[in-house]
Amino acid sequence: MPKKAILFMIISALAFTLMNITAKKMAHYSPFQMVFFRSLGTLVFTSSYLVYNKINYFGTHKKLLFFRSIAGMTSMLLFFTSLSYLPVGTAVTLRYLSPIFAAIFSVFLIKEKIVPIRWLFFILAFVGVLILKLTDLQFNIIGLVVIIGSAVCGGLVYNSIKLIGDKEHPYTIVNHFMLLCALVGGVASIFHWKPIQSEDYIPLLSLGLYGYVGQLNMTKAFQLGEINKVAPIKYTEAIFTLLIGISFFGDSYSLWSLMGMGLIITALLLNLLFKPKGS
Q1: pTM above 0.90, yes or no
Q2: pLDDT tens digits for 201-226?
Q3: Upper half-sphere CA count for residue 205 (Cβ side, 13 Å)
Q4: Number of domains in the chain
Q5: Which of 100, 221, 229, 243 is the most exposed place for a label (fewest CB within 10 A)?
């Protein structure tokens, strides 16, 4: 695998880690405000790119784009909400359940077939979730429900992107998503507005910058390397986030909690790396 692919994926993981940590630091603001600033920061780059290159700004497959955007916005909103209830490392790890829900939804939406052994991997991941909940008395049930909801919506995002395929330019898809987030987040923020300290504007806007850098480098990594070899590197994001959460936010994890998160990541990696015979 090209070294550049590895480098791009590590940069992507670090960018998303910075976004997660910044979001945790800004969690005292309304989730709608964070969605608004997150989308505003990314729109600067996506809109400029589309206009400069004269690419269809709003796209042509409106229903599919809207479905992807509403699912992505809901997932983002729920993730930001969960940070008020859960340690950031736990929230990020549980959000990685999205591929499992994506696989389940694909059976109904895209008519894909799931190899039986993959169900074992899915069960292992959910056992990890149960270990997290049942062995940690401080684990918040509201936070668990919210972050699982984020993962479910993330699964719908993967399927919607698969349905869109190459019918739309990637920047058009992201831009449509960010436009809806900016609109809904901006309007909803009016009713859930919390005064913003002057020193917090840059961190809030940086959410969009980190998200953009993360997406861009992840795309480059997948273009250069094989998916089954590049994708596992993305899980370093969970490790980076957990370590920073411990170092800067004083997050603490019991041995059982770490085992639960480890089981989730292991199950997802097995699901990613497993190749059926003849594939």
Answers
A1: no
A2: 999 999 999 999 988 888 788 777 76
A3: 10
A4: 1
A5: 243
Residue 157 burial (10 A CB sphere; 0-12, 13-18, 19+): buried
Q: What are phi and psi of 155, to 5 degrees?
A: -60, -35
CB < 8 Å & 24+ apart, contacts of 135-142: 135/254, 135/256, 135/257, 135/260, 136/254, 136/256, 136/257, 139/86, 139/90, 139/257, 140/85, 140/86, 142/85
**pLDDT for 95-145, tens place per residue?**
988 888 988 898 888 888 888 888 898 889 889 888 887 776 566 889 999
Record the tokens describing residue 183, joined without a space: 């609109």
Burial letters 4-21, b for 16+ CB under 10 A, else e: ebbebbbbbbbbbbbbbb
Enclosing domain of residue 119: 3-273
Say if CB 204 and CB 196 are below 8 A apart.
yes
